[in-house]
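Methods — Computational structure assignment.
A single polypeptide chain was analysed. Its primary sequence is given first, followed by the predicted tertiary structure written as structure tokens.
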Amino acid sequence: MHMDMQYWPAIGYETRPWQRSGDEITSRRQLRRLTNEYQAAVPPLIGQTDVVLEPEVLAASDEASAELARFDAEAGILVAPFASILLRTESASSSEIENLTAGSKQIALASIGAARSENAVLVVANVRAMDAALRLSMQLDESAVIGMHDALLAASAPSMVGQWRQEQVWIGGGAISPHTAQFVPPHHDRVPELMDDLFGFIDRTDVPVLAQAAIAHAQFETIHPFPDGNGRTGRALIHSMLRRGGLTRNLTVPVSAGLLHEPEAYFEALTDYRDGDVDAIVHAMTNAAFAAVSNGRRLADDITATRARWASGIRARTDSSVHRLLDLLLAQPVVSTAIVAERLGVSTVTAGSAIDRLVEAGVLTQTGGGRRYRLWQASEIISALDGFAERARRGRV
């Protein structure tokens, strides 16, 4: 983004000593480099910084905000599980930005503890983090953000949760030291003050909500307050701010799916932000919001049409377990008899009967599992979700 004036403070840098662990296995040349000092970022405090955006950036952000609110209202009255469908798709897209890719079927399997994909298990953990972000959105403070991170990583990396990081981290450049990193976030002793300042910025009411969420996200990623999971937690923070600011009330609009469409532009915007260009990240988030609404509407149409087609081919009371199972399949397109019985609150006999009806109607097909634990899938929903994911990543290099 072009700026005629420098409205936003750029990060500075400071020299820090590097302590070798003594266990490094690398060349003599690299070992000699490890004895040197390194440069760590010193992000500015932004709690009270005036937010001045280029007029066209601000106007586009306002238009995107209106589209987000309109889609949230429209989709909020669609089929009952659509909110949970979008929550899962957003979690999958946010994970894919971190190169954690899993198909819709594997994610559905992970949701019932039957996944063969480790990435799918991590995506489901991200669903928990997103859900925590929405539950905690009214009071965004240290405990809330640490709670989001805990929901994300407590199962897979319990040693990393519960507090801000206590070590230097870096992005790119190898695992041995930060000397050749693409970006070195601030030293960990600066994190508490920087996060307190960020919460002050988040509490402001004089910044448009979408722009405020974009800036807060960029500052969060610059601080990098955790050893791992910063990207996914930082994108969950976006949703908590959109919910808190009233732009969304019903749904998790798939903004990460919009960012996934042009990930390089997203990463460049974060770099530009650190160089003092606040317009760049607002522009990237605005484009992501427009893309999210467009893709989300396509998914809403696909899901709604599928549900209507199913209903037209089944003769049963609308309050029967068969129709209730149809709604369950929209959000959980792979099921077992036990899962159906549990989710619908019915006996396994009734659950099995409902599954049989949907197999006869062509809604469900068996998809593996042994005799004692058979699984069925709603292939049309899996295809719709995979179509959403493919549209999200289309255009990636």
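Note: The chain has 16 helices and five strands.
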